[in-house]
Amino acid sequence: MKKYLGLVFILISLGSCSQKMQQNATVVNSVQNPFIWSNANIYFLLTDRFNNADTSNDTHFNRTKKTAKLRGFEGGDIKGVTAKIKDGYFTDLGINAIWLTPIVEQIHGDVNEGSGSTYGFHGYWAKDWTALDPNYGTKEDLKILVETAHKNGIRIVLDGVINHTGPVTEADEVWPQEWVRTNPQCTYRNYVSTVTCTLVKNLPDVKTESNEDVEIPASLAKKWKAEGRYDQEIKELDAFFKRTGYPRAPKYYIIKWLTDYINEFGIDGYRADTVKHTEASVWAAFKTECDFTFEQWKKNNPVKVLDNNPFYLVGEVYNYGIGAGQIFDFGDKKVNYFENGFNSLINFEFKWNAAQNTYEGLFSRYSNILNNQLKGFGTLNYISSHDDGSPFDKARTKPFESATKLLLCPGASQVYYGDESARPLIIDGASGDANLRSNMNWDAIANNPETNAILNHWQKLGKFRNNHLAVGAGIHKMISKQPYIFQRTYSKDHYTDTVVVGLDLNKGEKELNIGAIFKDGTILNDAYSKTQTTVRNGIVKLNTPYTLILLEIKK
User: Do 476 and 486 contact (CB within 8 A), yes or no?
Assistant: First the structure.
């Protein structure tokens, strides 16, 4: 850990906004930093595990059976996320988008997964896509969340599941056979054995390849009638199918239900779950409907529009790596998901690249790919997640290095809840992915000085990333190998941003050659130590007690 406290960062920004960029500024948001998804700093959280702000909604549907460790609902809710936005937690961390695990109504029963009972606390076991699970909160809670986020310059990304329903339990019957298959189970040997199959045992696979008309499952119709909303749901479905001309096939029902969250709440994006297990054309149709609905929402809610960015769709193509460019290879078939609606794909390769490469090797490689093979698209890098059992730093011994590599690397960054506070990823008594899904370690943030030092590092780097498009979306170029100094430059539509970063410098007095990027006499502010320096003949001199220096033009 101490080794990476020796890193020094110099971030120097040149920026100018055109009148057009100013016109595109947020209507309801006081935050003035421009935003693009390719430079996003996205905070990914398990809704049930982040923050419990309303204990009255902790138990529903008689989900009271004793479960295996961390396999039941723990109480986290939508109100808890909103509370932390209001507290400024995300703003202080430089977060400009929040991705929540699915919040639709989950199966009511439990599943025995070998280690004991498990409930659908994670959100990926849908029972009814049209309703929120009351354990997470209400639609009014979601409305307030989105509005609060937007007022703070933060976008909301929901998690969309089209591939499967929830498991069958004593309380949850299987959907009709024209809707789902219950076998064969996927073997992942080729395209068909990855797509036209169930991911695991007892996870009914939606027949997304079908274009045959199907009726609403009887159990769902019965549920809607009992809740007094059957007529309204059917009316909306009739209107959707009339407008689109789609057959009443399973995939299109689910697409309609998911895009309703755009229409009703104005969410900004979707993370698409289990992408490679569903035909690529499904996601192309999904993106078409997301784009249409997002534009309609903007027209209907002009004073609520955050900015002019398009709807964001990032895909989980399990094991996709940035090195593959635009192609994912199933062995017997190659698929380009970027041609099927995706702005970006989650990069499963980053953790390996971060472990095996020098900073220059990592940064230059990513910049080259993003500005060539993936030009016009993006990638979402991460160091840990909810289902990756081999994260970059499983023991949490390298939290400073983790922040440095993730937040300064080209591409968008995914901060998994607790990365910034070294939340443990190894939990006594837990098994499998339950280790990755512990409750947020708020107590450590409140009481542990070491945790706060880690958090402070993530906050400073995160805020610089948020302030400078060049960090994630710019072109990388090394200035000096020893000491290691590089620059990032971003320019589009009369907006320019230049960032210079230096690593591995000493505490105390520092003299660095940053070239001719600034005119003599330019005053720079070091945000890390809150001191100032002046450029003389391309040289900056500083004397700070820190080994991390973040410089910007004094405003």
Answer: yes
Residue type, 273: D
- 552 DSSP β-pair partners: 525
Mean pLDDT of the chain: 92
Q: Write the pLDDT tens digit of every residue in 71-94.
A: 999 999 999 999 999 999 999 999
Q: Tell me the pLDDT tens digit for each residue of 410-428.
A: 999 999 999 999 999 999 9
| β pairing state of 539-544 and 508-513 | antiparallel
Q: Which two tokens stand for residue 64?
A: 């009271």
| Strands in 442-507 per DSSP E | 475-480, 484-492, 495-503
Class of residue 548 by CB neighbours under 10 A (exposed 0-12, middle 13-18, buried 19+): buried
Residue 164 CB-density burial (10 A; 0-12 exposed, 13-18 middle, 19+ buried): buried
Helix 230-244 to helix 250-265 angle, to the nearest 10 degrees? 100
Q: Which domains does the chain have, with CATH numbers?
A: 31-214+249-473 (3.20.20.80)
> Which DSSP helix (H) or strand (E) runs through 382?
strand 378-382
Kindly tell me the burial class for residue 208, based on how many C-beta atoms sit within 10 Å of its own C-beta (0-12, 13-18, 19 or more): buried
What would the DSSP string read from start to end of 55-67?
Answer: GGGS--TT--S--
Query: In 10 A of CB 264, how many CB atoms?
Result: 14
- Whole-angstrom Cα distance, residue 301 to residue 80? 26
DSSP label at 471? Answer: H
Helix (H) or strand (E) holding 238: helix 230-244
| Residues 6+ away with beta carbon under 8 Å from 1 | 397, 398, 399, 400
Give pLDDT tens digits for 496-513: 888 888 888 789 998 988
Are 509 and 529 within 8 A, CB to CB? no
Please give the sequence-ordered ranges of beta strands (E in DSSP) within 96-204, or none if there are none.
97-100, 104-106, 111-112, 117-118, 126-132, 155-160, 180-181
Q: Is the pLDDT of residue 531 over 90?
A: no
Distance, CA of 466 to CA of 44 (rounded, Å):
16
Question: Is the pLDDT assigned to residue 38 strictly greater than 60?
Answer: yes
- Answer whether residue 16 shows pLDDT above 80: no
The residues near 547 (Cβ < 8 Å, ≥ 6 apart) are: 5, 6, 7, 8, 505, 506, 507
- How far CA 17 is from CA of 24, 496, 498, in Å, comes to 10, 7, 13
8 Å CB contact between 553 and 546: no
The pTM of this model reads: 0.94
187 Cβ contact list (under 8 Å, min separation 6) = 193, 197
Residue of 283, 362, 270 whose CA lies nearest to 311: 270
